[in-house]
Amino acid sequence: MSSDRLIIFDTTLRDGEQSPGASMTKAEKIRIAKMLEMLKVDVIEAGFAIASPGDFESVKAVADTIKDSTICSLARAVDADIDRAGEALKGAASGRIHTFIATSPIHMKYKLQMTPDQVVERAVHAVKRARNLVADVEFSLEDASRSEFDFMCRIIEAVIDAGASTINLPDTVGYGEPQEFGEMFSRLIAAVPNAEKAIFSAHCHNDLGLAVANSLSAVRHGARQVECTINGLGERAGNASLEEIVMAIRTRKDIMGVDTRIDATHIVPTSRLVASVTGFPVQPNKAIVGANAFAHESGIHQDGVLKHRETYEIMRAEDVGWNTNKLVLGKHSGRAAVKSRLDALGITFESQAAFDEAFGRFKVLADKKHEIFDEDLQALVLDARDDAPKYYRFSALDVCCRTGVVPNANITLEVNGEAVQSAAEGSGAVDATFKAIESIAQSGTELKLYSVNAITQGTEAQGEVTVRLSRNGQIVNGTGADIDIVIASAKAYVDALNLLADDKHKEHPQREGV
Questions:
Q1: What distances in angstroms separate CA 87 from CA 39, 57, 59, 66, one per listed residue?
Q2: pLDDT tens by residue, 496-513
Q3: CA 233/CA 16 separation, integer angstroms
Q4: Are 35 and 266 in contact (CB under 8 A)?
Q5: Cα–Cα distance measured from residue 158 to residue 163, given in angstroms and rounded to the nearest whole number
Q6: Residue 110 gets which letter from DSSP?
Q7: pLDDT digits (tens, 9 = 90+) for 424-465
Q8: Neighbours of 148 (CB within 10 A)
Q9: Nearest-angstrom CA–CA distance, 501 and 506
C-alpha cells in the first residue's frame, strides 16, 4: 500500500450497533453495507459472529453480498470466536478476522486475570489460528491508550511474527489526548523491529469528545488505517465519525499528507440511511451531515459566500452528497424511475412482491405529497424489511383530540393475521394511541424514548418517529414515518413491538470489544 493512502475501516455494523437500541436486522445491515460499498469503504466490520445466531447470519450475508470492500468479523482471542468468524466469512471475496485481547495492566489483572506472558501466548495463538482461516488478520490491543509501552512493543512484535498484517491501537475508553495518543504511534512504529510488516490502525472512542482529533493525530504519526462509524455511532459517546475523518483529511491534505479512496458524494445519503435504520437522528449542527452544516444565517457570512464561496466555506456541500438528486419523483413517476432511484440509494429487495409493496406505498405518499425526496424513499422501505417479524401490523387509527375533551384513540391492529381493535384515553393523542396499542399487546415494556423529526422541509413533510422500548434489559428502537405524526407514532410503536418479538434482537451475549 502507498504510504500516502489511508485505509478507512467502518465499524458501524459492529461497534455502532452496540449503541443501546441500535440493533439492526440482517436486511438493514445489507442495505447499509451496500451504501458503504458505494462509498468505497475499504473494510466493513460486519459484526461479531460468535455473539449470537443473528450476528453470524448478518456477517455471513454481508460477506456473501459485498464484493468491492473487505468484510471483517470481530473475534476475541478464543478458538471458538475465531472459528465462527472464519465460517461466517467463507463467502467473502476478501475477508478479514479481527481478533483482540486486553493489554492494559488493569484489564489483564481484573478482567482477564492473566499474566502478561499468558496474554502474549494467547494473542500469538489467536493470530496463528485466524491466519490459517483467512489471509488478512488484524490484531487489536484492547485499552492500548492505558497499556505499558514496553509490553505493547513485545506483544506487537510477537503477533506480527505470527501473521498479523494490521495492528490496531484502540482508545477503548476515550482516555487519549491527541498529542500523547499520536506520539504513541510514532514511538511504537520506531521501536518495534518488524513494524514495517504491518499497517498501524487507530480506533478511538469519543468519551471526551476527542475521537476525531485523536484519530487524525495518529495518522500524522504514522497510522495508515482509521476505524470509524457513520455519524459517529457507537456505544457510550460513540466512535470517531467517518465523515469528519474523511473530509478533514481531504480538506487539510496539506498537513495530513494522505488521502482515502472514499467517494464523498455518498456521505450524506449514507448518513441519512444509518439515522433512519437505527433511529438515532443527526443533530442539526453536526459537522458535514447536519442540516445546518452548510447553512449561513449571519448577514456578513451570506454576503461573503455570495461574493466568493470560499470566504466562509471550506468544502462544497455537493461534494459530500447534499442536493445531488436531480430526478424529481412525484405521483406521475413510474416503476422504472422509482427503481432507478432506489438502486442509487443502495436499496434493493429480495423479491418482486417486496418492491411492489414499496411502490404501492410510494404512490399513496405521492398523492399526498407533491415531491418525493431521497429521505422519503428511505423511510418508505422501513416497513418492507424482509427479515423483520410482522406479528403486529398497523391497520387503522381514529383519534379524537379537541380542546376541553380528554383525547382518545381507537386503533385496529392485525395480530398474527387477525384484526383486533382497542380504544384508550390519554393525556394527548400520542399517549392515547400508545395506551390503545398496549391494551392489545400487553407487552410489559417501558417507553425509554419518543423522538420526532421532520424527514424533509415544509408543512407536507413526513414526520419520522423513533420509539425506544425496554423490557428485561432488552432495548429496541422502532421507527415509523407518515405525513400524520400520530400515525407515524403508532407505526413506530408497532415496529418496536415486532422487534421485541424477534429472538434475533435479544441483547448480544457479549458487549466486549475494542
A1: 27, 10, 10, 16
A2: 999 888 644 444 444 577
A3: 5
A4: yes
A5: 9
A6: I
A7: 999 999 999 999 999 999 999 999 989 888 777 666 678 889
A8: 13
A9: 9
